Amino acid sequence: MKCEGKEIVSRLDRAYKIKSEDFLAIEIWEKTRDPFKVLIATILTQNTTDKGAKKAYEELDKEVGITAEGLSRADPEVIKRCIRKVGLHNNKTKVIKEVSTKILNEYGGDINKVLDLGLPKAREKLVELPGVGKKTADVLLITCRDYPVFPIDTHIFRISKRLGIDGNYDKVSSFWREVSDNLRLRAHLLLITHGRATCKAIKPKCDTCVLNDCCEYYARLRGSQGPETS
Ligand code: SF4
């Protein structure tokens, strides 16, 4: 990679303003301080936009209420109707029912009991829950407890690869965790903002990007090898 990781985070920090309403999990945490609600919000945002997920979340909250008990007892057809506009809503209905039931049965409906186990135990227990992979677990751990983790979503994977930071989830996550110190959550949100606004999957705005002199993709684009094809 052509620039230091800290330099990249610092440039993004100067380039973008972070608004909590652009990130459903953050918005829900700031409003409710309830990790279970953050979990459901994060499941709803998987493979869909935060804006679409927010509408589904609000409808589900109004119709059923976002609690482990309420959702585990709710009619799946009601959940499905509330979240019908988000991607993979059939699968998400199943996951929401299963994860709510498991949290109700194993933790009395209180996911704080998992988060309070500390690292790495809390992370191990979270990824055992239905529908919870490393990214969703890390979103919960950093948002609700400020644990030293760094969630990697598709935007951050794409940006990292283009900059020249390659590898699996754990490798990319530990790179950003180390370079962002105590600004981890902010750096995570800055990278997502950069992916949404500039380093888009299709037609990234490289000519106006604040990272273009750091970027291997851009160097290839301007050099003899031609643009990235995958
Ligand atoms: S130069 Fe282009 S590919 Fe590289 S980080 Fe910026 S927008 Fe993304």
UniProtKB/TrEMBL annotation:
Pfam families: HhH-GPD (PF00730). Its cofactor is [4Fe-4S] cluster. It comes from the Archaea. SUPFAM superfamilies: DNA-glycosylase. The keyword Protein biosynthesis does not apply. One of its GO terms (biological process) is base-excision repair, AP site formation. Belongs to the Nth/MutY family. This is thymine-DNA glycosylase.
